[in-house]
Design brief:
This protein is mainly alpha-helical. The protein is built from 7 helices and no strands.
Length: 142
């Protein structure tokens, strides 16, 4: 149940956090600016990422989309939180947008972050296993 809620909040609901970033130039520009600030101040983002991650490539029809965007989310937590905080505190934003940003910030609990990281790692292992299995099946048939 919690995985479904997290998945909807990040990817599939109408205003899913990563979907909004993926399809909005404005959101992407804000997040990129926040990433630059985090890298400038801290030297790196989560996972020792020192570059600005510009692309979120979630596609529900692709199996590998379950791993990559989750890892990106985990690496960009500081920048995402900073970006959301800017939206929450901006009175020019619509109330609904500020409320969604605040709800997203509230959901970024240690449990949520741990589950997101574990899910990303699990899917990465599944992808490695499936690609190795496919290779073994091809070699076995030959």
């Amino acid at each position: 149940m919690r995985f479904e809620e997290q998945h909807a909040r990040l990817f599939t609901s109408r205003h899913a956090l990563l979907k909004d970033v993926q399809f909005s130039e404005c959101w992407r520009a804000r997040l990129n600016a926040c990433q630059k600030l985090v890298v400038l101040k801290e030297g790196a983002q989560g996972g020792n990422v020192q570059n600005i991650l510009r692309h979120f490539s979630y596609a529900p029809h692709r199996f590998e989309s379950f791993a990559g965007p989750r890892r990106q989310y985990a690496c960009l937590l500081q920048a995402i939180f900073l970006c959301l905080g800017g939206i929450v505190s901006d009175p020019r934003q619509e109330a609904a947008v500020r409320r969604r940003a605040e709800d997203s910030m509230d959901s970024m609990t240690p449990r949520d972050i741990l589950e997101c990281g574990l899910a990303g790692d699990f899917w990465e292992v599944c992808l490695r296993f499936s690609s190795h299995s496919a290779t073994l099946c091809i070699l076995f048939v030959m």
